[in-house]
Amino acid sequence: MARSFPTKNDLPAKTRSAMTGLLNDLLASAIDLRLQTKQAHWNVKGPNFIALHQLFDTVYTNTGLWMDDMAERAVQLGGVADGTLAGVRQRTKLKAYGLNTVSGDQHVAAIASALSTFGKMAREAIDAATKANDADTADLFTGISRGVDKDLWMVEAHLHAKR
Ligand SMILES: [Fe+2]
To answer: How far, in Å, from the CA of 131 to the mean position of ligand 1?
Structure first.
């Protein structure tokens, strides 16, 4: 368990500790998601190349904002943000990204799955933070969840016309 620091933040220490753990869990998957979007940005091929190349970079940028907000909230609550490679590897809930992912559809499916997994985590985290009476952390997760839903729509829309 990482150490914690004293703060005049009036949330109970138990709540702050629980929220720090939750934030670090989502932080690890957000960092993994961020790496996966760059992997897709670099390696996608096919007729939708430029649209997907740019879209994956947009998701990368958005994920970076979520990552930073979660890490900084963990520190605001007196905790330690764990953005280390070892910590991310241990905590991420995302499936490993396949090196043989090539076509636009394959990358869309992979990034949609990663966004879906992370979005589910964010929705569960809203409930956990609400139950812990930390409305601010719940609000942070709510904003992230809404952003994930939007990016998932933008990614999945590439598949829908084919059905
Ligand atoms: Fe680039």
So the answer is: 40
Per the domain annotation, does 2 fall within a domain? Answer: no
Burial of 42 (0-12, 13-18, 19+ CB in 10 A): exposed
Is the pTM above the cut of 0.90? yes
pLDDT of 158 above 80: yes
Q: How close is the Cα of 29 to the center of ligand 1, in Å? A: 21
The boundaries of the domain holding residue 111 are 13-160
User: Are 24 and 12 within 8 A, CB to CB?
Assistant: no
The CATH number linked to 145 is 1.20.1260.10
What's the pLDDT tens digit per position in 94-134? 999 999 999 999 999 999 999 999 999 999 999 999 999 99
